[in-house]
Amino acid sequence: MPTISRFENIEAWKTARQLTNLIYDLSDQGTFSKDFGLRDQIRRAAVSVRSNIAEGFESHTQPLFINFLGRAKASSGEVRAQLYVALDRNYITNEQFESARDVAEKTSRQIHRFMAYLETQPNVRRVKEDHVEYVFYHSNVPTF
Known about the structure:
By secondary structure, this protein is mainly α. The protein has helices at about 10-25, 35-60, 60-90, 95-120; strands spanning about 135-140, 140-144. Strand 1 (about 135-140) and strand 2 form a beta hairpin.
C-alpha cells in the first residue's frame, strides 16, 4: 500500500464524505427535516465518521489512529440504526433507506479492512511531512 500523506486520500474517508452528503440530503426533506432530534443526531453521527478518520490520521500515531477508526466504524453503525428510525417513521422510502444503508455499510467495511491492515503493520509514524518549516523568534526578528 502506498504511503498516504493526507486523510483526504483515504478511501474510507471519501466514502464517509459521500455518506455525510447523502444523510444531509435525506434529512433536508419533508417531515424528516422537522424531526430536529433525529435529524441532528443522524447528521452528527455521519459527520463523526469522517471526522474521526481525519482526527485519527492527524494524530500521527498508529495505535491512536486505529482507536479513532474504531470510533468512526461505531458511528457508521449509529447512522445505520438511525436510518431504521427514519424508515419506520416513513421519513424516507425503502429505496432511500437501502441506498443510504449500503453506503454506510461500505464505509464500515472499508474502515474495518483499513484497521486490519494497520494492525498488521509495524508501529511506525505514518505521516511524513515533505517540508517542515519552523519559525524561531529572537529579539522580535523571525529566523528560519
